[in-house]
Amino acid sequence: MPDGPQFELGWEEWLALPDLGLPAIKAKIDTGAKTSALHASVIEPFGPVTSPQVRFLIQPDPNNPALEVTCSAPVVDRREVTSSNGETELRYVIETDVEMGGRRWPIQLTLTNRESMTYRMLFGRGAMQPDMVVDPNESFHMPELSYKLYKGLPKKKPVKRPLRIALLTREPNNYSSRRLVEAARKRGHVIETIDTARCYMQIGTLDPQVHYDGQALPRYDAVIPRIGAKITDYGMAVLRQFSNTGAVCLNEAGAIGRSRDKLLAQQLLARAKIAMPVTAFAHSPKDTKDLIGLVDGAPVVLKLLTSTQGRGVVLAETRKAAESLVDAFRGLDANFLVQEFVEEAAGADVRAFVIGNKVVGAMKRQAQKGEFRSNLHRGGTASSVRLTADERETARAAAKVLGLSVAGVDLLQTRDGPKVLEVNSSPGLEGIENASGKDIAGQIIEHLERQVRPLSSDRETTLRSNRRINVN
């Protein structure tokens, strides 16, 4: 026994596990047990082999099973533990800090289901500090806590916990993908890039799954869709399936569909009275002249409904050129828009980057000489710009109308105020980050952190049946 003052514990004590988001838990102090144990259900390992992690659900109050907290922690070991009834169990071992009596120190805990036990935590002698002694005849020598401390937790800043994130992309090495992976890992999350086209699905009511390379993918907390225009329909189906598994999708499939359908997007924006260039729509009109007249004549811009990054967008500077282009599109049996050309914009537009109904960055894009399209993929240049209050509100409203949590809203600056040119559901990050100097990728990950909800205990059966976890 060490010399000096002793830190005396009762045989039961209140303590806190702050890194797990547990401000109060009642533990049995048991010097007969070397290993400490924490109640855990829905135990779900994840992450790479080199730094594995585990997520689990705990009900800290034995008398209130409705109180549930989701916890995550790094795995330090898997260990066989023999319980007091003689049963041996292979358990995950985590390390976390404990707070008791004004002290804080790291301890190791094994995770096991203690649902039938009086105490949600067993505090073994291996977790005790050298000057600690236990009075087996007394309880609660430490300051008393209460489960009432959980009452305000949802309103407080959420406890940071590792998320498992899927990045749906066919271009894992482009700037946007690399930045999102970097930002997620920097904040302690596990993120995997998944080729959208290689996913296939098992559709069922009990256990919806997404398969990849011959096996079911693990459960993800969140999915970031970077779906190419060529596979929009299939990509949306894959995204809906991920949503069915309980994953939070950065942008929902329906919102992506609305943004990709230029006609639908224009109709929804018009119904919401959001200003935009005058637009006409046609498939194969016989009255070419009337169609052009609907947008007050040449010059006009013609856009294929499937155009992206400036491709399929053509400027007709004269009525004759416009009529020839309409006839050409008619010959292709294509759906297209005819839109007024806003000459005062002088080949420039503004992209406002919206995350969670907030404009977090903006840039002005200027077309190169002799080009009216300001897309960076077409040689345009980007510079920082300060938006007006009207421009910010217009960008927020446009993203909200289409249901997008993250969007690049392209605006034309006119004498009549901002006009929405297009709303992009998978906006690139390179131009906006370089022009604004802001960590847009990091803000996207922060937004996901706020959207992910805790696991619920009704997922335990599903998770137990899905232990075939593929980690790279």
From TrEMBL:
- Give a Gene Ontology cellular component term annotated to this protein: cytoplasm
Keyword Metal-binding attributed: yes
Q: What is this protein called?
A: Probable alpha-L-glutamate ligase
| PROSITE patterns on file | ATP_GRASP
Q: Which UniProt keywords apply?
A: ATP-binding, Ligase, Magnesium, Manganese, Metal-binding, Nucleotide-binding, Protein biosynthesis
InterPro entries documented for this protein: Asp_endopeptidase, ATP-grasp, ATP-grasp_RimK-type, ATP_grasp_subdomain_1, Peptidase_aspartic_dom_sf, RimK, Rimk_N, Rp_bS6_RimK/Lys_biosynth_LsyX
Instruction: Give binding positions for ATP.
Output: 303, 340-341, 349, 373-375
Where is Mg(2+) 1 annotated to bind?
410, 422
Q: Which GO terms describe its molecular function?
A: ATP binding; metal ion binding; ribosomal S6-glutamic acid ligase activity
Q: Where is the ATP-grasp domain?
A: 266-449
What are the recorded Gene Ontology BP terms? SOS response; translation
Q: Which organism is it from?
A: Hyphomonas adhaerens MHS-3
The free-text cofactor remark is: Binds 2 magnesium or manganese ions per subunit.
- UniProt: Mg(2+) 2 binding residues: 422, 424
* Its EC number(s): 6.3.2.-
Q: Corresponding gene?
A: rimK
Concerning PANTHER family, the annotation shows: RIBOSOMAL PROTEIN BS6--L-GLUTAMATE LIGASE (PTHR21621:SF7), RIBOSOMAL PROTEIN S6 MODIFICATION PROTEIN (PTHR21621)
